[in-house]
Amino acid sequence: MSTTPTRQDFDHYMTPNYAPQQIIPVRGEGSRLWDQQGREYIDFAGGIAVNSLGHCHPVLVNALKEQGEKLWHLSNIYTNEPALKLAKKLVERTFADKVYLCSSGGEANEAALKLARRYAVDHYGEKKDKIISFNQSFHGRTLFTVSVGGQPKYSQGFGPVPGGILHAEFNDLESVRALMGDDTCAVMVEPMQGEGGILPATPEFLKGLRELCDQHNALLVFDEVQTGVGRCGTLYAYERYGVTPDILTSAKSLGGGFPVGAMLSIDKVAKSLAFGTHGSTYGGNALGSAIALAALEFIDTPDVLEGVQKRHDLFREHLETINRKHGVFKEIRGMGLLIGAQMSDAYEGRAKDILPLAIEEGLMALIAGPNVLRMAPSLVIPEADIAEGMARLERAIERLVASA
């Protein structure tokens, strides 16, 4: 006889590396969710920028059903039609010539970092191995990617970490220049830092990185795991800046909720990922590729991409209205539907306190560090859901202010 799982089952059966909220959602439709008790929530979290079309979007459900009745998985001993169609679409719509498919953003970044070093060895020798990243950056949870990420807390306690990794200051070109040399093989950067606080790069910074990489024969790697696939109002954020990387990583919104990742690269670099150098058992499986292709084709339209900016403006207007009443935010920032509200000095470090209050009011939101409230909703969230979600957020903030 089956029993209904409870939140206490998490503490009993699961490793304690997460601390989920006390509710358990069981059903979703669009930008709304319902928990085990049937209570409704508006979703401003989007699965951490993953649910690009909300929950159970018919385009994705249909792709899942159709492909699910044909072919799920083969392994990379064979190729399959959905993977080839997805790769072709990504190449046609971006700077890239080649695509490597995997199952997550961390895997895509791991592949990008390995490719950057392999390319340097192939063309310049083993001494060209330094990778420059940025303080407060986040690139995944593998040992390599947490080491490249600029948040030491994620790599502490895991023994010796990979060497040859340097960290500069985000949006500070001179700090990069001081570290660059002929031994630099790559610079990895998020066009907008996500976990680091929803901080967009300046155009001058990214253009300067491109110039420094060209001067030192280093590769420029854009981590667009969180900013890509319409999240910033263009298919990828690099288009907003007019700066083209050599390698780009993508995941999250790419699968619309299904685990999919991709690494895109120019041809001369991709050649270094030769037969046998890297792989992924599930990467490019037919089921995931079909769903990602459906998401990509739906998002890559003027209606959706232009709608992202319109919704951004609505979010900003609502947040500014709330702030005029309550004074809880110092700055509201971000691009497209990746929005951060930095807490004011009086509420320093209290962004996390908003989340359980918001849940009680029927709203799901996120944080980006202890001091930034983060929102990454569906790219097609209805305007009515934005308005109602903001009303619920304001009630949560009123409770925060009252408790101060």
Description:
The chain is an alpha/beta fold and 404 residues long. It folds into 2 domains: 7-56 and 302-403, Aspartate Aminotransferase, domain 1, CATH 3.90.1150.10; 71-299, Type I PLP-dependent aspartate aminotransferase-like (Major domain) (Aspartate Aminotransferase, domain 2). It is built from 14 helices and 17 strands. It has helices at 7-13, 46-49, 58-68, 81-93, 105-124, 143-148, 173-177, 203-215, 238-241, 267-270, 286-299, 302-326, 351-360, 383-403, and strands spanning 25-29, 32-35, 40-43, 98-102, 130-134, 165-168, 184-189, 192-193, 199-200, 219-223, 247-250, 261-265, 329-335, 338-343, 363-364, 366-367, 372-375. The strands form 4 sheets. A 7-stranded mixed sheet has the order 4-12-11-10-7-5-6, sandwiched between helices. A 4-stranded mixed sheet has the order 1-2-3-15. Strands 13-14-17-16 form a 4-stranded antiparallel sheet. Strand 8 (192-193) and strand 9 (199-200) form a beta hairpin. Helix 3 packs antiparallel against helix 11 (286-299), helix 4 (81-93) packs parallel to helix 11 and helix 13 packs across helix 14. The radius of gyration is 21 Å and the shape is globular. The protein starts with 6 loop residues before the first helix and ends with a helix. The mean pLDDT is 97.
